[in-house]
Design brief:
The complex is a heterodimer of chains A (about 475) and B (about 475). With about 475 residues, chain A is an alpha/beta fold. Chain A has a single domain (about 1-475), classed as Amidase signature (AS) enzymes. Helix content of chain A is about 40%, strand content about 15%. In chain A, a hairpin with a 5-residue loop joins strand 10 and strand 11 (about 445-455). In chain A, helix 2 (about 20-35) runs antiparallel to helix 3, helix 10 (about 300-315) packs across helix 12 (about 350-360) and helix 10 (about 300-315) packs across helix 13 (about 370-390). Chain B has about 475 residues and is of the alpha+beta class. Chain B has two domains: about 5-285, no CATH class; about 410-470, Arc Repressor Mutant, subunit A (Orthogonal Bundle). Helix content of chain B is about 40%, strand content about 20%. Chain B has helices spanning about 55-65, 160-175, 215-235, 280-290, 295-305, 310-320, 320-335, 335-350, 360-375, 380-390, 395-400, 410-425, 425-435, 440-450, 460-470, and strands at about 5-15, 70, 75, 75-80, 90-95, 100-105, 110-120, 125-130, 130-135, 145-150, 190-200, 210-215, 245-250, 255-260, 270, 280. The chains are: A alpha/beta (about 475), B alpha+beta (about 475). The interface of A and B includes residues 234 and 362 of A.
Chain lengths: ~475, ~475
Amino acid sequence: MEIIKLSALEIREKILSGELSSEEVTTAFIDQINKNQKYNAVLEVFDDAILQAKTMDEKIKNGFKGKLAGVPIIIKDNILYEGKICSCGSEFLKDYVAQYNATVIDKLLQAGAVIIARANMDEFAMGSSTENSAFGITHNPLDFDRVPGGSSGGSSAAVALDMCPIALGTETGGSVRQPASYCGIYGLKPSYGRISRYGVVAFASSLDQVGIFSKNVYDNALMLEVLAGEDKNDMTCAKVAVDDYTNGDWSCKKIKVGLPKEILNLAKGLPCEENLKNFVKWLKSKEIEIVDISLPNIDIALPVYYIIAPAEATSNLARFDGVKYTSRAKNAKNLDEIYKMSRSEGFGKEVKRRIMLGNYVLSSGYYDAYYKKAKRIQGELIKQFNRAFESCDIIIMPTTLAEAYKIGSKSDNPVDTYKEDIFTVTANIVGIPSLSIPFGKGEHGMPLGVQLMARKFNEKTIYNLAKFLEEERGE
Amino acid sequence: MQYDVVIGLEVHAELNTKTKCFCSCKNQYGQSPNSNCCPVCVGLPGALPVLNGEAVKKTIKAGLAMGFEINKTAIFERKNYFYPDLPKAYQISQLEKPICINGSLRIFDKDIPINRIHLEEDAGKLIHQGNISMIDYNRGGVPLIELVTDALKEPHIESADEAIEFLTKLRQIYIYAGVAECELEKGQMRADVNISLKPKGSAEYGVKVEMKNIMGFKSVYRAINYEINRQKEILDDGGTILQETRKWDDEKGESFTLRTKENSEDYRYFPDPDLIAIHISDEDIEEIKKSLSPLPDQLKQIYTSNYGLSEYDADVILADKKISDFYNQCVALYPQPKTIANWITTEILARIKNNEDIAISGENLIWIIKTVDEKKLQRNNAKELLSIIWGTDLDAQTEAKSRGLLSDLDQSVILGILDNVLKEKAEVVEQYKREKDPKILNFLVGQVMKASLGKANAQEIMQILREKLN
């Protein structure tokens, strides 16, 4: 038995039964992290991880049976864990120590998880390759020369490298699903409002959600069960009952799967087109009903996203002004210089690009033409999805255009990189849940993914279908 | 040349909620620096605002007190700008859908139109010591309501006097509605003023100059007059007014340019995605309306028309809500509003120093007033009694008895005392009979009062003496 290959469910069971200790498990995963440092998936292994595991073993001896009892977890570096550095992949916050726990951290700890490390990410979650971290590029576990995707590339690579069974990422426009697809694992973006954002460093507040990486469907559902639910500290966190995600009806032949015709057009000629067609064929072979649906304006989701997200980001990142936090320009001679120089020195290129973009779309004279219009189209897209969901339970589309690309191959053309997000941004714009499941391979044998999307707060339907497919594939 | 002056006011008042606007820190003045803040009000990364419902209710209440319409759906926007006292580099405020719209306030028989009252958060405070600047975030996140007059609609505020009357009345309304304390020296109420001049009778407005954050009404008054004169001089010389924001220097008694229109800030407002829209129902509004206590204008009407007080006395009582509350309480105990008003405007007000509390219960004061009215307590003894029990929890009746201050002597005893005085002061009596000098009569009354240890009724003694000696 190789510990690092075990699922979270198996780890918990073996620890509760006494077959393994949390300390043994944690040690095994930390060894795995140390052995694979060249991938730069993890920025820091917490020095109290083993101590946490030992404490957990004591608790378990005393009858503790939390849903994640003794399970090692890695978090993205933009989730605040009190007393630990939270750098957001930025020079600006390289020594910033979290002053309080994010709600998701409290929930993890209550469930008995052992939080062992923080993972690399694109600076302030801006990017889709983890090439934009102030702390170096993260490499794809399956091909060292390729990107792992981003912005949660560190978390995704960590799971794919067996550094932990489940990792947390965050999503604003695909930052969990896209790297999950590139690394061949499962990645969920829950419905907006499903998981508290309190203590997660904001990128675009109306789109951000904590997301979950796992190697199987059950672990993913288990983690959502732990994290989901209302929070008095987050007004946007929904007061909607949390389903029993792990106790699903895994045989879901009655589920109708919607195939948007516009998606086939967008995918035309790209590697994801054939893959999606294969997926449809395979679903049909499993006697799952496919219905044709239409999402007439889905192509506009991308520009809408690249207006709303930078606008909110501009405002959210304004607090990093050199007055507080760690990065104040040393040569600044007055207040204006503190602002200008600190921000010029502290932020990376991609972050500055989006700050400028955001300021532009919010500035007086342009606000109505960009931000307001984007919000109006967002409303229209929500309506179109609601209509589509009248005739189906799940909507499918590719996660990415193609397999993971070579490191450095897109850095010179940001718009090309933005275009990669075309299939993922929609779920954030519409606020619905979407799970990327591994399916198929690209031309170089790298994994591809397919998204399963459902109505808002219907994560359970997604898990039901995903679990069914997982079993049908004999995984 | 003659000009019409148009004055617009933006008035900020801190609401007196228990906690801050978007977190559970106490809304309290005077704590040691940075001791009353949390991740939310210092804007730490990841922290999220949670709206304080009490702040919304008090904003609605302020609006209802001045006849505002209440928006059924109100939203919060972010006002983005950099300043060290603003930890998130944006202020949560309201732009497109404020809580209250279209109200008015009556001053000198003019209903001054008011555009809006919106709810926002206060910033922290900068403290400068020599070369060092420090930030105290305690005030950060305190709920503020901002009222903006509608200077584009008539009638206008046209002078410093009118502006001060507006501010004084507004302050009273906020205090009476119970939404704000408005203590000026604590910065709990602050005004921005904008002023423009136009040729008398002209329909076209002049260029607006704004003056920010003037502390205290006296400074507002001086700043307005300074600005009116400054603009007049420029216009009289054929110059043009620059659209700008000026800062008033109270010590120098003059203002200087802070920033001009060209480098004015673009606040890049947009709806705060961390907060959800507030929905205000008719039921909510009705409930708040019911809880609204009477306002100064309504009370003044009652005091003058129903109670027969002079306008002056009514104003004196209404100038301080604490006094008016006490007065109302006393009138409820003893329906002699005029008598009570006399006592309060003289004896009570004289005893309150430095805005201290009223250190006597309504019950005690009413017992004293009533007993004087029943002629069982002499006014001088009543004052003495008031001084004895002021600031204590002694009971007026018990003290009056134990200290022998009551006029509880039999008529026969008093007459006996009187006869004794007449005998002892026979010479004086003779002198009075000759000269009929009222001063002599007063002297004799005084002698009787003295001999009776103040328990006799001076007027009665006077009456008896007149009958006896005339």
